[in-house]
Amino acid sequence: MKFKNLANLFSDLESTTKRLEMIEFLSNFFEGVKKSNKFEDLDKIIYLLQGELVSNIKKFPKIGLAEKMIIDALSLHSGIDKKKVKEILIKKGDIGATAEQILAKRRTQMSLFDFEESPSELEPSLEISELYTALQKIALSEGTGSQDVKLGILRGLMRKCSPLENKYLLRIITSTLRVGVSTLTIIDGLALGFTGIKDNRNIIEKAYNFHPDLGDITKILAEKGITEVEKIGITYGIPIRMMLASRVPYGEIIEKLGTPLTAEYKLDGERLQIHKKGQDVKLFSRRLLEISEQFPDVCKTLIENIQVDDVIIEGEVVAMDSFYEKMLPFQVLSKRRRKYDVEDIIKEVPVCLFLFDLLKYKSESYIDKSFMVRRKKLEEIVSERDELRLVKSQLINSTDELLEFFNAARTEGNEGIMAKSIKEDSIYQAGNRGFLWIKLKGLEGGKLKDSVDVVLVGAFYGKGRRTGVYGTYVGAVLDPVEGKFIAFTRFFSGLTDELSDSLTKEMEKYKTEKKPKSVICEDIPDVWFEPEVVIEIIGDEITISEKFLTLGYSMRFPVFQRMRPEKGPGDITTVEEIRSLYDSQ
Ligand code: AMP
Fold first, then answer.
1. Which residues form ligand 1's pocket by a CB distance below 6 Å?
2. Is residue 433 assigned to a domain?
3. pLDDT tens digits along 293-316
4. Which of 33, 59, 152, 330 gives a 20 to 30 Å CA spacing to 44?
5. Ligand 1 pocket mutation, candidates 241, 243, 265, 266, criterion most atoms within 8 A of CB
6. According to the model, what pLDDT value does residue 250 have?
7. pLDDT value at position 445?
8. In the prediction, which pLDDT does 114 show?
9. Which backbone phi and psi does 98 adopt, to 5 degrees?
């Protein structure tokens, strides 16, 4: 397919904030693809719509083109002085919009002779497959002279593009292509475009929860139809989207889950989904990326101590003291993210894996089995030792028992507890934050002791001691239905000078010219950010807000608690949870 068609779709999608209109643009586009019967680029189209080059469970090699090179390319291509290009870029804050403006203007000034010299100005010819081949080449070119090679390839691509295509091409090259359409909206568009039946979105979403590579799923949908999508199940080495927990006031937990329920310690580590087949073990993070290389010791322990082939289990990996007696906080575990000197870090930060769920056993899916069946099977296959244990759990029959267990959990240094339904229908809800799991991190005496995960959407420049760094940030929570991030609070305290510096630097990557379409915010910060970076905050209480009117709530005395690098924007606290926290005060 021609890149031109996709650029037109991006442009249509960017022209609206209404979900229904987006779905219509997408479904018309997919209907066209279906009629054309040409599906080879479909997966790539989906990834680009998701703002990525490959599925979110894979990694594309780094493109590695310095901004200076891109400015050079744009200057050479347009014949406009580098200095002028830079000036426009600073004003616009977005390389794509800069390219479009410069090139569209140049186009109106071109003579017939120029068009003959450069025919693609009239008939852009770039194919999506060609774009990918070129991107691979750019990414893989290394060493001396590689910047020139990269620049040459980029210029070749630019010559084949219209100004509108160049806008998106340069955003792709600089990893800033975010069209602002959520995965759920794409799924709606796929259902309508390929099957004509809106409700088929549920089948596609279910398949996506088991196999979160929407490009793969779309190809199956196009080539084989919805019945084949329905058959998509768990695949070894493809992480299942993780089940998440909701929050309700502690007095309502018993009512929500029924009794008996099971409560477990909520540990302060990092979630791991483990796929084991024979002697091969893969560890996936909460963001569904493979992180086995951070934990070679955990992989070894699993191979030695879980004798079953072909299982998928889940647990929390926690940093321990050198006697494996005391659990250490998440910040200590974060040291394991280092990519070098892994052997030294393993010795410095010993870890224990605390298991709590089983999703597949000897090729049989356990996802639709009730929690007790899953837990029992897990107990059967694990022989506990220092580095590998089961999460502590207890059957609970009353709120008093629940609180007693909660207090014990807190005394032993845990974040709180997870209450889990053990009823017949207590299946593993992949990709869902339902009410079968409820987390309780603590509410005492009307004061909010629970934390909230927000995504940073904007910031104000600091003053005084904080000149040169951001002084105040705006954090938002998630409306999962609309796929929007709703402003919730401003916060400025709790950041050390060191963290303030590094966060300001880190946020450069996410700065955008305008408020992102997915963000709803009544504040007007000095800079806007793409919602990417997740932060945990605590505060005194949830209050009714006169400022953040869309949400209607805010936080009193919010304080930065810690960065949550293992969480993505889809994992943050939801609007529903904020309401429930307010009600529980
Ligand atoms: P939260 O990050 O506050 O939404 O809480 C959910 C996270 O708690 C999960 O993703 C796990 O990483 C972690 N967790 C800790 N202990 C447990 C447990 N016993 N069961 C499930 N999740 C747990």
1. 244-245, 264, 266-267, 271, 286, 316, 356, 391, 418, 439
2. yes
3. 999 999 999 999 998 999 999 999
4. 152
5. 266
6. 83
7. 46
8. 62
9. -60, -50
Same domain membership, residue 80 and residue 40: no
Dihedral angle, C-alpha 415, 421, 427, 428, nearest 10 °: 0
How many domains are contained in the chain?
4
8 Å CB contact between 471 and 501: no
CA-nearest residue for atom 8, ligand 1, is 266
Residue tagged active-site, from 44, 160, 266, 420: 266
* Pair (256, 351) in one structural domain: yes
**Domain membership of residue 277 as a residue range:** 244-440
| 381, 407, 440 - which closes a domain | 440
What separation in Å is there between the alpha carbon of 564 and the centre of ligand 1? 13
303 to each of 246, 273, 309, 314, 376, how far by Cα in Å? 33, 15, 10, 15, 20
- Ligand 1 mean position to 498 CA, how many Å? 29
Residues of the chain with pLDDT under 70: 107-123, 443-449
248, 271, 580: residue to mutate for ligand 1 pocket, most atoms within 8 A of CB:
271
Pick the residue whose CA is nearest to atom 18 on ligand 1: 266
pLDDT of residue 439: 93
Any domain includes 446 = no
Identify whether 121 is part of a domain: yes
C-alpha dihedral (424, 370, 287, 573), degrees to nearest 10? 30
For residue 77, being part of any structural domain is answered with yes
186 CB neighbour count, 10 Å cutoff = 24
pLDDT at 180: 83
Q: pTM score, two decimals?
A: 0.86
Provide the CATH number for the domain around residue 79.
Answer: 1.10.3260.10
Q: Ligand 1 atom closest to Cα of 270?
A: 12
Q: Does the active-site annotation cover 266?
A: yes
Which residue minimizes the CA distance to atom 14 of ligand 1? Answer: 266
- Give the domain CATH number at 521: 2.40.50.140
Q: Do 406 and 431 have their domain in common? A: yes
- For residues 342 and 348, what is the distance between their CA atoms, to the nearest angstrom? 10
* 389, 420: one domain: yes
Residues 6+ apart with CB under 8 A from 251: 399, 584
184 lies in the same domain as 314: no
**Do residues 297 and 425 both lie within one domain?**
yes
Cβ proximity of 289 and 422 under 8 Å = no
Residues 420 and 289 in one domain: yes
